[in-house]
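haha ok so turns out i had the wrong file open the whole time. this is the CORRECT one, sorry everyone. sequence first:
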Amino acid sequence: MPQAQEASAVDTGLSRLSLQQRLELQFEIEQFFYVEAALLDAREYRAWLDLWTQDCSYWMPIRRTVALADIDREFTKRGDMSFYDDDKKMLAMRIAKMESGSSWSEDPPSRSRHFVSNVRIASIEGDETSVELAFALYRSRLNDDESIWVGRRVDRLRRVGGDLKLCDREIYLDQTLISATNMSTLF
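then structure:
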């Protein structure tokens, strides 16, 4: 079977939706991510945290430069070292620290601009939708401290009481070297 036909033979759950339903879901998901980005950029961290389910996972593996023969080792795996491996309690602790004024990395606070694009619904399973997207995040702090992160996210959204909530986020940076002075930024 040719690769294109083989890929379409995988049931992503999207075939059960009409074109109108797919367009409506795509629009709803894109708007959700735009609101999320605006909340982070406005430092509305508590409202951002409300977008997450209680059992959420927020994970960013470490990317390594590897030879083509070892490409499956490019990113660390869950359970290994990572930049983030948080649940909702850890996210709440990060936010409390940023808001406390006692975090040297966020007093004075960073200014950020989150961009999301190439939003693609990957699959639908029950009340959960898996979404892949590209992101760019610009952060500045003080007068000359600037960082730019670019990458791909794999997010899982769950419908809870009619609303979309984030239940899982995997963040894959394109760069292997982090030149930022800290990693207090939320992606």
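The first strand starts at residue 52 and ends at 61.
again sry for the mixup
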